[in-house]
Task: inverse folding
């Protein structure tokens, strides 16, 4: 079974081919360098760049010749995401489906992130997933291949968004996650403190905006009082807070649902501290390869494979 997939929900344009859960080919064009200037994604610019980038990918795809032959299904990201960006992937997928007479499947981006940890691997149920990205932060419970439930989610900002906003305030650059993670890695033995952790009614829900505000206020207060600013300390203690908070809720979910396996996915899953924390929580942890942590079409192809393989 050969699946061709398109992902275009946010600012990455990606094509991939998966054959029986073996990745054959993937090409992704990122827009990060463009949006960097604005400190976040500008939807209008994202749509226009998807048009340009998807044509570049189509040219590459056409050159593939034999490996792009005999495709059984075309999968694309249907939701959720930026409407203008999703439309571009949808139009191209529909056009290819009509021209080549191949069935088309529209899929959920978040489910795709879940399956990013199961490329080249099979999974066991029930499975619990901690999905942390620039747009989403949630705990997903998969009872079987098709049935999943979001048991906890952020009530405000997503984790990646908070990393990016804190990094912008501290003038560290964009995207903030990898920069703060690097500082944390080099200073975690020195600074072990953290900011306070919120408590919500649903024990699996998250709220990250209070942490963001606490870090930003702390930084502004130091400036106003003309006190010494230790960026390494603030960044490290910020990441300590995120790790502790994610651990607290995810550990509770593991204890309650007793899953056969757990996964971590989404762009923030590249974070070394969060990866290590998860590895300590369960004896059957699946982590996506680094190339599948950020938005990519291989995870959409993997999800499609799960839906159609029987
Ligand atoms: O899933 P993703 O590629 O994009 C969307 O959500 O659309 O995630 C991007 C996010 C950014 O906010 C970025 O700062 C964050 O993932 N990120 C990280 C790390 N690498 C990327 N956050 C924390 N630690 C990292 N190592
Ligand atoms: Zn994503």
Result:
């Amino acid at each position: 079974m050969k699946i061709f997939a398109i992902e275009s929900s946010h600012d990455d344009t990606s094509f991939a081919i998966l054959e029986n859960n073996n990745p054959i080919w993937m090409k992704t064009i990122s827009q990060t360098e463009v949006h960097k200037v604005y400190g976040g994604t500008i939807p209008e610019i994202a749509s226009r760049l998807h048009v340009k980038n998807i044509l570049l990918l189509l040219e590459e795809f056409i050159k593939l010749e034999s490996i792009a032959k005999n495709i059984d299904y075309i999968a694309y990201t249907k939701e959720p995401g930026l409407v203008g960006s999703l439309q571009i992937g949808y139009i191209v997928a529909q056009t290819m489906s009509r021209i080549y007479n191949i069935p088309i499947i529209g899929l959920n981006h978040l489910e795709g992130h879940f399956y990013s940890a199961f490329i080249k691997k099979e999974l066991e149920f029930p499975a619990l997933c901690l999905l942390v990205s620039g747009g989403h932060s949630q705990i997903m419970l998969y009872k079987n291949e098709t049935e999943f439930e979001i048991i906890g989610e952020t009530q405000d900002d997503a984790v990646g968004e908070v990393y990016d906003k804190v990094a912008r305030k501290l003038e560290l650059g964009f995207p903030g996650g990898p920069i703060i993670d690097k500082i944390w890695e080099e200073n975690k033995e020195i600074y072990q403190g953290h900011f306070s952790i919120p408590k919500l009614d649903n024990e699996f829900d998250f709220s990250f905006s209070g942490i963001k505000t606490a870090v930003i206020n702390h930084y502004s207060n130091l400036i106003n009082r003309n006190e010494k600013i230790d960026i390494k300390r603030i960044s490290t203690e910020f990441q300590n807070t995120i790790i502790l908070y994610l651990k607290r809720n995810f550990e509770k979910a593991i204890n309650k649902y007793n899953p056969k396996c757990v996964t971590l996915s989404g762009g923030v899953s590249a974070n070394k501290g969060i990866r290590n924390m998860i590895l300590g929580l369960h004896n059957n942890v699946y982590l996506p390869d680094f190339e599948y942590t950020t938005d990519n079409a291989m995870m959409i192809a993997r999800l499609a494979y799960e839906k159609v393989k029987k």
Summary: The pocket of KG4 (ligand 1) is lined by residues 10, 133-135, 160, 163-164, 175-178, 181, 266-268, 270-271, 294-295 (CB under 6 Å). The two ends are 11 Å apart (CA to CA). The mean pLDDT is 95.
